[in-house]
Specification:
Length: 131
Amino acid sequence: MDQRPGSRLDRGNTVDIRQRTVPGAARPERGLRVAPLPGRTGLKLSGEVSLATHADWESALARALREGGRMYRLELSAVTFVDVAGAGALAAAARTLQDGRRLVLHEPPLTLCRLLDLFWPDLRTIEVVTS
């Protein structure tokens, strides 16, 4: 960052890119929506997993552990963000699975895949499916 005297940052000008919007662009979905996965055992989720939605995320994971058979699907293609705590909750839930059970993540956000690979590389009870 350029903080030389007279530079843009030195003059106290800051730009918060989180506040920028593009005219006509759809706003990112806030919150987390959870619905049954039609025709399959699992859930379809949309929105984001963040501090504000952890309770909903953890409820969805508890439902997956309670209802799931050998394989429980989580359709995540409409999930835009999963924070580290959300990834940790997923890993903790997956660690409780026994007897060959697994969670199958369909189209999870790339950041979630990276977090799982980075912090839980040997977690065999999560399967990631991408198209």
